[in-house]
Amino acid sequence: MELRGMNRSQFRQAKEIFGQSKDYLQLDGKEVDIKKSARNFFDTLPPGKSYAEKFNFGIYEGSQLVGLLDFIQGCPERETDFVGLLLLLPGARQKGVGSQVQKKIVKLAKNHGAKKIGLAVLRNNPQAIKFWISKGYKLKKETRSLGIRANPVSLLKLEI
Ligand SMILES: CC(C)(COP(=O)(O)OP(=O)(O)OC[C@H]1O[C@@H](n2cnc3c(N)ncnc32)[C@H](O)[C@@H]1OP(=O)(O)O)[C@@H](O)C(=O)NCCC(=O)NCCS
């Protein structure tokens, strides 16, 4: 598994991943809009953040793009880096790829000098919650919605 930086010139490839991951998009209960999801992946910033602090990665197995990662530095506070999205194609799940990506996320955050990693998981995504809890992330808060997510989310954090 390798993480490679992605930019908007790869919009079509990102859209392809969302198109094959409708199961995940459906969890947010809204109309599934693949184009909008790809746009959010590249363009949406949390309040007060800049594009210099947002990193889009493609998750590759060899030459094949199998997933997407959106990583934001210093969010919501300076010492926390935030995972905006971790999404693997259905066929790439449950094979240990997510665990490898998680380790790289910790490295990225440590290199940047962060002390914590934060993320929001939809409450109706118990597999993902189980995944993060198994990596040591702790439940910090539950909210009715957050940013682009319309449905209730759990906020999780890992001290690194
Ligand atoms: C959540 C997600 C990122 C996890 O990544 P993953 O690659 O599926 O996870 P892993 O394979 O590393 O680990 C998941 C489980 O599979 C098991 N596993 C690891 N390697 C395995 C293998 N070779 N064969 C079978 N199972 C394996 C792990 O033990 C782990 O078990 P657990 O259920 O007890 O935690 C991924 O499933 C995904 O993209 N899901 C859809 C989008 C999503 O929900 N994203 C999270 C939003 S916050």
UniProtKB/TrEMBL annotation:
| Membrane-spanning residues | none
Q: Which CDD domains does this chain map to?
A: NAT_SF
Task: Report the PROSITE patterns cross-referenced here.
Answer: GNAT (PS51186)
Domain annotation N-acetyltransferase: ranges: 1-160
Q: Is Zinc-finger among this UniProt entry's keywords?
A: no
Q: Which SUPFAM superfamilies match?
A: Acyl-CoA N-acyltransferases (Nat) (SSF55729)
What's one GO MF term for it?
Answer: acyltransferase activity, transferring groups other than amino-acyl groups
Question: Is Endoplasmic reticulum there in the keyword field?
Answer: no
Protein name, UniProt field:
GNAT superfamily N-acetyltransferase
Ranked from the top, the taxonomy reads: Bacteria, Bacillati, Bacillota, Bacilli, Lactobacillales
